[in-house]
Amino acid sequence: MNRLTTPTRRTVLLGGLALLAGCDHQPRASFKGVDLADATYKGEFRLKDAQGRERTIADYRGRVVLLHFGFTQCPDACPTALARAAQIRTLLGKDRDLLQVLFVTLDPERDKPEMLKAYTAAFDPTFVPLFGDLETTKKTADSFKVFYRKVPTGSSYTLDHSLLSYAFDPNGVLRVALRHNMAAEDCVHDLRQLLA
User: Fold this and answer.
1) I want to staple 178 with a disulfide (CB 3.0 to 4.6 A). Which of 15, 21, 73, 165 is the partner?
2) What are the distances in angstroms from CA 149 to CA 41, 53, 74, 105?
3) Is residue 21 part of a domain?
4) CB-neighbour burial class of residue 146 (10 A; exposed 0-12, middle 13-18, buried 19+)
5) Strands (E), 62-195
6) Does any domain span residue 23?
7) CATH code assigned at 124
8) Spatial CB neighbours of 157, under 8 Å, sequence gap ≥ 6
9) Residues of the chain whose pLDDT is less than 50?
């Protein structure tokens, strides 16, 4: 046989692998939020819940996790985000228990565990508040590329901070960031793709 028409073992092997890869390829999700598939960060945390138990994303495997950064004295952005999260749970219907909402405080100096617990429970009793010390809070925010800073207000202060909420799939992989101005229905669209 002519050597040009005879496939080598290497060619057959590479062709077979390419075919297998093509069979396993799944279409990329079409999110209304910010697709984080190509993000250079993974979004990791090791924080405490209101009972003092250490929590990581591994604790919530099997559920979609929606994580929001904020603080209890936030005048409007944080209450809006948590009210939307409660609405999302309602819109998910029978799948609502497959969603875990986490609220990470950026203000651990003032947001003590009991205060955090009462704050999140006012929106939905299933929401879990998380906190760390100042160093852990900064490290966690940095791992999500979250911006925040203290802004003096008279004898006290407030915080300026990023307004994205972050969604992990049931395998604990950070997949999408939901913009603050997204409607709850659009958020549900994205979260259902993570549940599929």
Assistant:
1) 165
2) 21, 27, 13, 13
3) no
4) buried
5) 64-70, 99-105, 128-131, 148-153, 156-161, 165-168, 174-178
6) no
7) 3.40.30.10
8) 150, 151
9) 1-6, 9-25
Number of C-beta neighbours around residue 18 at 10 A = 10
Q: What is the pLDDT of residue 27?
A: 59
The answer to whether residues 160 and 58 touch, using CB atoms and an 8 Å cutoff, is no
- The Cα–Cα gap between 178 and 57 comes to 18
Domain ranges, residue 149: 31-195
pTM for this predicted structure = 0.85
* Residue 8: both structure tokens together: 């080598």
Give pLDDT, residue 41. 85
- Per-residue confidence (pLDDT) for residue 13, from 0 to 100: 43
Q: Which residues pair with 156 in a beta bridge?
A: 153
Q: What is the C-alpha to C-alpha distance for residues 110 and 86, in angstroms, rounded to an integer?
A: 24
